[in-house]
Write a structure and sequence with these properties.
By secondary structure, this protein is an alpha/beta fold. The chain folds into 2 domains: 147 residues, Rossmann fold; 78 residues, Trehalose-6-phosphate phosphatase related protein, domain 2 (Alpha-Beta Plaits), CATH 3.30.70.1020. Helices cover 42% and strands 20% of the residues. Strand 3 and strand 4 form a beta hairpin.
Length: 238
């Protein structure tokens, strides 16, 4: 969303202009933050802007501005179950299907974008690994050329957003996302507004060729991918 999609997650880079725009928003707004499926340590590497609030691992980690990450206490036992399942995944079998494992500690992503046959690799993950994970007490979620393995706990980007917004005392919130996990944050924003905890909630999509139509339908406003996001940040900075 802040950077173009790349073949390998490790190759992702947030443009310097976007980093400068985020820096410019600090001090102008009560809360400026990034919530990601990546671990917060990875978020801090990709978005090295001091003063940001962060959520990581699909809400399993949160960090208020100026603080280090902490695991949501309710997830501790479920993370242990996840780790046990991941320990049983055989690297050679994943490799044979063109799948590589991104270990984020509190969650795991199985990527197949670079597989020789991404369609077959994705089908294998959904048919074999997904059901095995569910049977072991691990949650799964399909993303963009990814199967996410998550602790079986009711935590998502929406719960992380609620924690950060409440801590900051923000009353008007704009959240930009591009996937089903971001739709969870939009759902929470709308619930907070309906309950009177927010005066306004803006649910914005960073559109692109891989965005699921149901995610597009859930947004209030649609932007043209990372280019549109950068333009929005520039407008907010004014």
């Amino acid at each position: 969303m802040l950077a173009p999609i790349v073949a390998h997650a490790d190759d992702a880079r947030v443009p310097d202009r976007v980093l400068d725009l985020l820096t410019g928003l600090l001090g102008r707004y009560r809360l400026v933050g990034v919530i990601s499926g990546r671990a917060i340590t990875d978020v801090d590497r990709l978005v090295p802007v001091p003063g940001l609030a962060r959520g990581g691992n699909h809400g399993l980690e949160v960090a208020e501005a100026g603080h280090g990450p902490r695991i949501v206490p309710a997830a501790t036992d479920a993370i242990a179950v996840l780790r046990g399942f991941v320990a049983g995944l055989e690297p050679r079998v994943l490799t044979a299907h063109g799948v590589w494992l991104e270990d984020k500690g509190a969650s795991v992503s199985l990527h197949y974008r670079q597989a020789p046959d991404p369609g077959a690799a994705g089908e294998w993950l959904r048919a074999e690994v997904g059901p095995a994970a569910l049977a072991a007490g691990v949650r799964i979620r399909n993303g963009k050329m990814i199967l996410e393995l998550l602790p079986d706990v009711d935590v998502d980007k929406g719960t992380a957003l609620r924690t950060l917004v409440t801590a900051a005392g923000a009353r008007r919130v704009l959240y930009v996302g591009d996937d089903h996990t971001d739709a969870d944050a939009w759902r929470v924003l709308r619930a907070m507004r309906a309950a009177g905890h927010l005066d306004a909630a803006y649910c914005v999509l960073a559109d692109g060729p891989e965005v699921d139509p149901t995610v597009r339908d859930a947004a209030d406003t649609v932007l043209d991918g990372p280019v549109g996001v950068a333009a929005l940040l520039a407008e907010l900075a004014r």
